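W.,

You were right to be curious about this one. When I first looked at the sequence I had no strong expectations either way, so I just let the prediction run and decided to look at it fresh. Below is the sequence, 361 residues in total, followed by the output.
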Amino acid sequence: GDTRGGAPGPRSTRTGRRRNSKVRNNVAETTQQGSGNVADRNLALELVRVTEAAAIAGGHWVGAGDKNSADGAAVDAMRSFLSTVDFNGTVVIGEGEKDEAPMLFNGEQVGSGAGPASDVAVDPIDGTRLTALGMNNALAVIAVADGGSMFDPSAVFYMDKLVVGPEAADMVDLRLPVKQNIHLVAKAKGVKPNQVTVCVLDRPRHQGLVEEIRATGARTRMILDGDVAGAIAACREGTGVDMMMGIGGTPEGIVTACAVKATGGVIQGRLAPTDETERQKAEEAGLDVDRILTTDELVTSDNCFFAATGITDGDLLRGVRYRGRTITTQSIVMRSHSGTVRMVEAEHLATKWEKYERRQG
């Protein structure tokens, strides 16, 4: 989403510890080891503990109308659990600069410090407004890749994006007309254009894009926020989404690239400065705002880890459920090197989490 900014709300801590989980392998993971700098074990299975904690903490605020408290709770939980993960991470996509974000700021060191350097992108709640309003597609998200491999967007906060799954990955091009890209996706999937569904953020700036999509006969799925969920849904079967198009957050695009690498899909992006000042800052940083950025340019490493846990129900994941004695979560974890995508359903004993919260509070 693109609802970042504004004064940070009060930070409240709601963290915990996972009781047990059952894992369904969508793709059997190979035993091939990573070739990059990040530790060769499947770090994603450790990172899912982090997103579970953030989702459970933020989930307490679903529908409460207070996005700052929801975000604060999720940030605190994510930060606390990151300290237990055995890796050497630096937040490169976080909550902002240190003076503006007391938690998970850009440049913050996370993890135990063991092992080679890693880039970390975090979004404790992708969709704070969705959480506050009790709407679909809010996620807790983290991505990790080899140190120095994540694209530095500098001061350009928005990006025009095109995301499709593996069937059409080699066919689409952000420079092509909207109609042509939709026809290419339809051809790749063996369907008619009017059977293609395009996910688009519901923003006034997308009025023309939506008209172009609908003129082809294709359908739109409008989302209020949460374009990480929408982008990944476009790469996954059974979600009802075939493409994602439009302008959204640049940080979310980089996070999405880590996930897309595991699915075989593609994300293409083009920086979209909001004004001349931002454009000038981009040029001073050596960025070409007209350049089409590929998946491999957004994240150069092929050794990426991605984890997300649902906060509210959505196309990708089911939201957190609080059921008296237990709390249940659903997560997706990915590793690009092996192409493994796992769905993780976890059951957490509520009393254990409550005790942990009191110790942290």
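Here's what jumped out at me. Residues 1-36 have pLDDT under 50 and may be disordered. And, maybe more interesting for your project: DSSP finds ten helices and 14 strands in the chain.

Coffee later to discuss?

I.
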